[in-house]
Design goal:
Distance between the termini: 24 Å
Order of helices and strands: EHEHEEHEE
Strand order of the largest sheet: 2-1-3-4-5-6
Strand content: 15-25%
Oligomer: single chain
Number of strands: 6
Length: 121
């Protein structure tokens, strides 16, 4: 799959996803640091990349409709989470991908579970 990591996720997260066989771009590498959430959502849409972020704002489905994207993944952590916690959520996400394909959905990855926002078609 094609992913874009938000600037709040480090290089080790990108390495984990690449090791699992995914195509990963990062906000930092593309010079998008500090861009608005709306612009980042639009860029991910144009690139057909799933956004992976710690930013809970992307869980607002009225503001960022997942069906208008390749998908959104919010890694649920505590404020000021350590990198080990973030990497654990990425590992949880990679594990969840083995059970279900991510479509144009919102996934919230929490310790021990993944919540998937279902759209009403």
């Amino acid at each position: 799959m094609k992913f874009k990591l938000d600037e709040n996720i480090g290089d080790r997260g990108a390495e984990l996803l690449r090791a699992a066989g995914h195509d990963v771009a990062t906000v930092r590498a593309q010079g998008l640091g500090g861009t608005t959430d709306e612009n980042l959502f639009a860029v991910c849409g144009r690139e057909k990349r799933v956004l992976i972020t710690l930013d809970r704002d992307f869980g607002q489905v009225m503001r960022f409709p997942p069906e208008h994207s390749a998908g959104i993944v919010v890694l649920e952590t505590t404020p000021h989470a350590q990198s080990d916690t973030i990497l654990a959520r990425i590992r949880d996400f990679i594990g969840a991908l083995s059970n279900r394909r991510l479509g144009s959905e919102l996934w919230i990855v929490e310790p021990g579970r993944v919540r998937v926002h279902q759209t009403d078609d």
